[in-house]
Amino acid sequence: MAYNPDQGNGEASYLKSVTTIYVHITGENEDSPRFLVRSYNFSISESAEMGKSVGKVTAMDKDHGVDGIVYYYLEAQSNLKGFLIEPLTGILRVSSRPDFESSPTVFLSVIAKNWGSVRGNDTDTCLVSISVIDANDPPEFTKAIYYANITENSPPNTFVTNVMAVDYDIRADFKQFKYKIMSGNVPERFQISSTGRIETSGLGVLDRETTSKYTLVVGAEDLNDPTII
């Protein structure tokens, strides 16, 4: 406010100037995140591919703005169990193929952390239990390469070698498979039994001067889910 003494009539007058002040009240990061429930239960097939979503955990923070953002991460050894968590969504995903036979149930400890900072403890923890559903695993050969020798002109049913595959499934109906010569047996000079025994078929004669080496590709075919390895 300003005073003007000269008005010409001997009277003093006041000149006014007005302004507006906006006062914003800034909040403090007062609250830490809290999980909606203390434990979660999910399930996933052991045949699930990497990146497959398992489930989602959720924690809430009463603060507003950036102070209310929650950051999720796995605690310590939980990072080594084949799963990961998206930091800003709480979605759990498969990071390596689960195995029912070795770990039918996986337990994870998930931490929710305050994005900003508060006094004292600004984290909360929940337990996640993931049940791994048994799937039909393919059989696996005990060796990648086999070597064998046989004399030319050998008679039918002459032993060549044995191959072996193992199916680690627990369920009996998932453990059934058969052997099959996939390629390299042209003409059909060899045959394979249900036990993995390879022998001469008797369909023609083995002649070293004609063919000195055969490279046979043998598969183990699951009878319930025909995946050949």
What's the structural blueprint in terms of helices and strands?
Blueprint: E1 2-4, E2 13-15, E3 34-35, E4 39-45, E5 53-56, E6 59-60, E7 70-74, E8 83-85, E9 91-94, E10 105-114, E11 123-133, E12 140-141, E13 159-162, E14 165-166, E15 177-183, E16 190-192, E17 197-200, E18 217-222
Concise structural overview:
The chain is 0% helix and 36% strand.
What does this structure look like?
- The protein contains no helices and 18 strands.
- With 229 residues, the protein is mostly beta strands.
- The protein has 2 domains: 34-133, Immunoglobulin-like (Sandwich); 136-228, Cadherins (Immunoglobulin-like, Sandwich), CATH 2.60.40.60.
- The strands form 7 sheets. Strands 4-11-10-7 form a 4-stranded mixed beta sheet, with no helix packed on it.
- β16 and β17 (197-200) form a beta hairpin.
- The model has no long low-confidence stretch (mean pLDDT 87).
- Keywords: Calcium, Cell adhesion, Membrane, Repeat, Transmembrane, Transmembrane helix.
- It is found in: Membrane.
- One of its GO terms (cellular component) is cell-cell junction.
Number of domains: 2
- The spatial strand order of the largest sheet comes to 4-11-10-7
Query: Shape, please?
Result: rod-shaped
Total E-strand runs: 18
CATH architecture descriptor name of the largest domain: Sandwich
The helix/strand class is mainly beta
| Helical segment count | 0
Residue runs with pLDDT of under 50 for 5 or more positions: none
Q: How far apart lie the N and C ends?
A: 93 Å
CATH topology tier name of the largest domain: Immunoglobulin-like
